[in-house]
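[Discussion] Sanity-checking designs against the backbone

I'm trying to build intuition for which residues belong where. Below is a C-alpha coordinate string of 167 positions. I'd appreciate it if someone posts a full sequence so I can compare it with mine line by line.
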Protein backbone atom coordinates (compact mmCIF):
# COMPACT_ATOMS: atom_id res chain seq x y z
CA UNK A 1 0.00 0.00 0.00
CA UNK A 2 1.21 3.49 -0.86
CA UNK A 3 -0.17 6.48 0.98
CA UNK A 4 0.43 9.76 -0.78
CA UNK A 5 0.76 12.78 1.51
CA UNK A 6 1.77 15.27 -1.19
CA UNK A 7 -1.38 17.37 -0.62
CA UNK A 8 -0.53 17.87 3.08
CA UNK A 9 1.49 21.04 2.45
CA UNK A 10 0.37 23.46 5.17
CA UNK A 11 3.12 25.36 7.03
CA UNK A 12 2.06 27.91 9.65
CA UNK A 13 3.61 29.37 12.79
CA UNK A 14 1.63 30.15 15.93
CA UNK A 15 2.33 32.82 18.56
CA UNK A 16 4.60 30.38 20.47
CA UNK A 17 6.71 29.81 17.34
CA UNK A 18 5.41 26.27 16.96
CA UNK A 19 5.33 25.32 13.28
CA UNK A 20 2.27 23.32 12.22
CA UNK A 21 3.51 21.34 9.24
CA UNK A 22 1.71 18.96 6.91
CA UNK A 23 3.10 15.44 6.61
CA UNK A 24 3.86 15.86 2.89
CA UNK A 25 6.14 18.90 3.22
CA UNK A 26 9.74 18.70 2.03
CA UNK A 27 12.65 20.16 4.00
CA UNK A 28 13.49 22.96 1.58
CA UNK A 29 9.91 24.23 1.52
CA UNK A 30 9.70 23.99 5.31
CA UNK A 31 12.93 25.92 5.90
CA UNK A 32 11.95 28.65 3.45
CA UNK A 33 8.39 29.01 4.79
CA UNK A 34 9.26 29.33 8.48
CA UNK A 35 12.05 31.76 7.67
CA UNK A 36 9.77 33.88 5.48
CA UNK A 37 6.97 33.88 8.07
CA UNK A 38 9.00 34.80 11.16
CA UNK A 39 12.75 34.33 10.60
CA UNK A 40 12.64 30.94 12.34
CA UNK A 41 14.67 27.78 11.78
CA UNK A 42 14.87 24.08 12.67
CA UNK A 43 17.65 21.51 12.77
CA UNK A 44 17.36 19.37 9.64
CA UNK A 45 19.32 17.84 6.80
CA UNK A 46 20.68 19.70 3.81
CA UNK A 47 18.80 18.03 0.95
CA UNK A 48 15.75 20.21 0.17
CA UNK A 49 13.86 17.41 -1.56
CA UNK A 50 13.73 15.06 1.44
CA UNK A 51 10.30 14.68 2.97
CA UNK A 52 9.75 15.75 6.56
CA UNK A 53 7.84 12.58 7.48
CA UNK A 54 10.70 10.11 7.28
CA UNK A 55 13.37 12.64 8.21
CA UNK A 56 11.71 13.84 11.42
CA UNK A 57 10.43 10.49 12.61
CA UNK A 58 13.76 8.69 12.25
CA UNK A 59 16.17 11.36 13.53
CA UNK A 60 16.86 14.34 11.35
CA UNK A 61 20.54 15.19 11.63
CA UNK A 62 21.79 18.42 10.10
CA UNK A 63 24.45 21.11 10.40
CA UNK A 64 22.65 22.81 13.32
CA UNK A 65 22.13 19.58 15.28
CA UNK A 66 25.07 20.29 17.60
CA UNK A 67 23.22 23.41 18.76
CA UNK A 68 19.57 22.34 18.51
CA UNK A 69 19.48 18.55 18.46
CA UNK A 70 17.80 16.38 15.86
CA UNK A 71 14.63 17.26 13.99
CA UNK A 72 12.73 14.71 16.06
CA UNK A 73 13.79 16.58 19.21
CA UNK A 74 11.71 19.55 18.03
CA UNK A 75 8.48 17.57 17.77
CA UNK A 76 6.02 18.74 20.44
CA UNK A 77 2.92 17.06 19.01
CA UNK A 78 1.69 15.00 16.06
CA UNK A 79 -1.65 14.35 14.42
CA UNK A 80 -1.64 10.72 13.41
CA UNK A 81 -3.87 8.07 11.89
CA UNK A 82 -3.20 4.82 13.71
CA UNK A 83 -3.29 1.35 12.19
CA UNK A 84 -6.79 0.79 13.61
CA UNK A 85 -8.05 3.87 11.71
CA UNK A 86 -8.39 6.18 14.70
CA UNK A 87 -7.13 9.76 14.45
CA UNK A 88 -5.37 11.22 17.50
CA UNK A 89 -3.36 14.25 18.56
CA UNK A 90 -0.32 12.81 20.39
CA UNK A 91 1.83 14.80 22.83
CA UNK A 92 4.07 13.94 25.77
CA UNK A 93 0.95 13.98 27.98
CA UNK A 94 -1.83 12.85 25.60
CA UNK A 95 -1.08 9.38 24.21
CA UNK A 96 2.53 9.53 25.44
CA UNK A 97 3.36 5.96 24.36
CA UNK A 98 2.33 6.76 20.79
CA UNK A 99 4.07 10.16 20.93
CA UNK A 100 7.42 8.64 21.86
CA UNK A 101 7.02 5.69 19.47
CA UNK A 102 6.37 8.08 16.58
CA UNK A 103 9.60 9.92 17.41
CA UNK A 104 11.84 7.16 16.08
CA UNK A 105 9.66 4.54 14.42
CA UNK A 106 6.56 6.27 13.07
CA UNK A 107 6.04 4.04 10.06
CA UNK A 108 5.51 1.11 12.44
CA UNK A 109 2.72 2.84 14.35
CA UNK A 110 0.77 5.21 12.13
CA UNK A 111 0.71 7.91 9.49
CA UNK A 112 1.60 11.39 10.68
CA UNK A 113 -0.60 13.93 8.93
CA UNK A 114 0.59 16.99 10.87
CA UNK A 115 3.78 17.76 12.79
CA UNK A 116 3.99 20.45 15.49
CA UNK A 117 7.63 21.57 15.71
CA UNK A 118 9.31 23.99 18.14
CA UNK A 119 11.33 26.42 16.04
CA UNK A 120 14.42 28.45 16.90
CA UNK A 121 15.39 32.00 15.93
CA UNK A 122 17.20 31.80 12.61
CA UNK A 123 20.85 32.81 12.78
CA UNK A 124 21.55 36.27 11.41
CA UNK A 125 24.59 34.96 9.55
CA UNK A 126 26.03 31.60 8.58
CA UNK A 127 29.63 30.88 7.68
CA UNK A 128 30.40 27.91 5.47
CA UNK A 129 33.86 26.46 5.71
CA UNK A 130 35.82 23.43 4.59
CA UNK A 131 39.32 22.09 4.75
CA UNK A 132 41.27 19.51 2.84
CA UNK A 133 44.04 17.18 3.79
CA UNK A 134 46.25 16.67 0.73
CA UNK A 135 47.01 13.05 -0.15
CA UNK A 136 44.79 11.80 2.66
CA UNK A 137 44.22 8.51 0.87
CA UNK A 138 47.83 8.04 -0.26
CA UNK A 139 48.38 5.24 2.26
CA UNK A 140 46.68 3.60 5.21
CA UNK A 141 49.01 5.41 7.62
CA UNK A 142 48.28 8.81 6.05
CA UNK A 143 44.53 8.10 6.18
CA UNK A 144 44.69 7.06 9.84
CA UNK A 145 46.78 10.10 10.80
CA UNK A 146 44.36 12.38 8.93
CA UNK A 147 41.37 10.98 10.81
CA UNK A 148 43.20 11.38 14.13
CA UNK A 149 43.87 15.03 13.17
CA UNK A 150 40.18 15.60 12.38
CA UNK A 151 39.15 13.98 15.68
CA UNK A 152 41.61 16.14 17.62
CA UNK A 153 40.18 19.24 15.98
CA UNK A 154 36.59 18.18 16.73
CA UNK A 155 37.44 17.64 20.41
CA UNK A 156 39.25 20.96 20.85
CA UNK A 157 36.92 23.04 23.01
CA UNK A 158 38.91 26.19 22.33
CA UNK A 159 37.76 26.21 18.69
CA UNK A 160 34.72 23.92 18.63
CA UNK A 161 31.48 24.64 20.44
CA UNK A 162 27.83 23.76 19.84
CA UNK A 163 27.50 26.58 17.30
CA UNK A 164 29.93 24.87 14.94
CA UNK A 165 28.16 22.34 12.77
CA UNK A 166 30.10 19.54 11.17
CA UNK A 167 28.34 17.61 8.44
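Best answer:
Here's mine. Compare freely.
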Amino acid sequence: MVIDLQNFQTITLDSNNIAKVGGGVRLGNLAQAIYNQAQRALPHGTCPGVGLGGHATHGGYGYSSRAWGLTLDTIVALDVVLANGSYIHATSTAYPDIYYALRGAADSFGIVTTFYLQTQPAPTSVINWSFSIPNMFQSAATSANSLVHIQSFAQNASVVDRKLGMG
